[in-house]
Amino acid sequence: MKKQKSITLLTTVFALGAVLAGCGGGGNAGGNAGGGGQAAPESANNSGGGSTGGALEKIVIATVGPMSGQYSDYGSTAKAGAEYALKQQKDKFKELGFDVQLLAQDDQADPKQAVAVAQMLISNADVLGVVGHATTGASITASAQYETDNLVMVSPSATGSNLTEEGKKIVHRICARDDQQGSKAAIFAKNQLNVKTAYIVHDKQAYGQGLADEVKKQFEKDGVTIAGYEGITAGEKDYSAVINQILAANPEMIYFGGYYSDAGILIKQAREKGFKGVFMGGDGYDSADLVKIAGAENANNVIFTSTVGDLTATEEGKKWIADFEAATNNKVGIFTSFGYDSMNVLLNGLEKAIKANDGKKPSRQQVMEAVHDTKDFQGQFVKVTFNEKGDNEFASVYVYKYENGQKVYVGEAK
């Protein structure tokens, strides 16, 4: 996902040496759960016990995304999963002689803030990898900084197709791209929902418009009539003008490319004006706040695609959820699972780089190359093989809907 709304830059402080105080961000997918601001890395353990026989050498892995503001669900839930994964593997790295610490940073889903965060991470020589960024707009601007110093990133959720089309060797993601998500959403709408006419709306931003463009392209290819194509300004409270145009066109479906905060308002106002058809969108809809904004009844028949599958589909997945919630006292949220798998992919690369470097602390380039060479890594929720661009060859797209105020899994989008 992506977000390009400019927000005043924060002053980000590295509070090295302080104990990381809880993940504070793994709330359920509907709330803006905790995570407000930056977290310090966990304090180094200088009590020995590693293969060096003395003090453990410090390595820092950063996790970056919106930890505050209206999009904090995305960053805070990914951070919660990444932190959980790291805690499970800390002892293994201590045996290798290293204290691997987590450093959480808030980019507010703002491309400008993402640059400031990236520059700070680059300036800290102990940072050898980044889980993030969570949104594509922020990922694109940050990746240009990371590229200058071979600092590898593994995003759990940045779906914009152009992120991996720019040729940066440090960029990786485990989720599907928007050209996959958009085209599969359109195919699902035509084949499963029997949609013949659709009105496409977007929020004029990289994520929303990019996704809408992919849907439009696939609809045109498949012969679905595009009744209209309009952009709205994100953050407004009254979308009557575009809703009136939609109602006049009388489409069977409205596809809106954007985030839940704007989608909720658009859905509520369109329903109040009499629209009875289907609403559809992407993973930006995946928040219980959409239901709160739109109203449970209005949210019925709202369908969205996601890059994250149903975690409760297997007994193993259910057990992982129970273990996570017991260990962290947090609920699993939208990107908790992919934050977890992204961290494990990065740690797998880090471990390989350490061993290839004769047990010594590797360089950023060595870690980047090890991560890039990831093949058939079986994560908890997704298998990962990176192609030359940094995309995951095993990434999939899934379909959900809201029903009586609850998110309901529909199935994999084919």
Structural class from helices and strands? alpha/beta
With helices defined by DSSP (H or I, 4 residues minimum), what is the helix count?
12
Shape: elongated
Q: Which CATH architecture of the largest domain would you pick?
A: 3-Layer(aba) Sandwich
Region (Disordered): 32-51
Organism: Brevibacillus composti
Family: Belongs to the leucine-binding protein family.
Pfam families: Peripla_BP_6
Summary?
By secondary structure, the protein is an alpha/beta fold. Helices cover 38% and strands 18% of the residues. The longest helix has 24 residues.
Structure explained in plain terms:
- This protein has 414 residues and is α/β, with parallel strands linked by helices.
- The chain folds into 2 domains: 57-176 and 316-381, 3-Layer(aba) Sandwich (Rossmann fold), CATH 3.40.50.2300; 178-306 and 398-412, Response regulator (Rossmann fold).
- The protein contains 12 helices and 14 strands.
- It has helices at 72-95, 111-123, 136-147, 178-191, 206-222, 240-249, 260-272, 288-294, 296-299, 315-328, 336-356, 364-372; strands at 57-65, 98-106, 127-131, 153-155, 171-173, 197-202, 225-231, 253-257, 278-281, 302-306, 377-378, 383-384, 398-403, 406-412.
- It has a 7-stranded mixed beta sheet, with helices on both faces.
- Strand 11 (377-378) and strand 12 form a beta hairpin.
- Helix 1 packs parallel to helix 11 (336-356) and helix 2 packs parallel to helix 3 (136-147).
- It is elongated.
- Residues 32-51 are annotated as: Disordered.
- Keywords: Amino-acid transport, Signal, Transport.
- One of its GO terms (biological process) is amino acid transport.
- Belongs to the leucine-binding protein family.
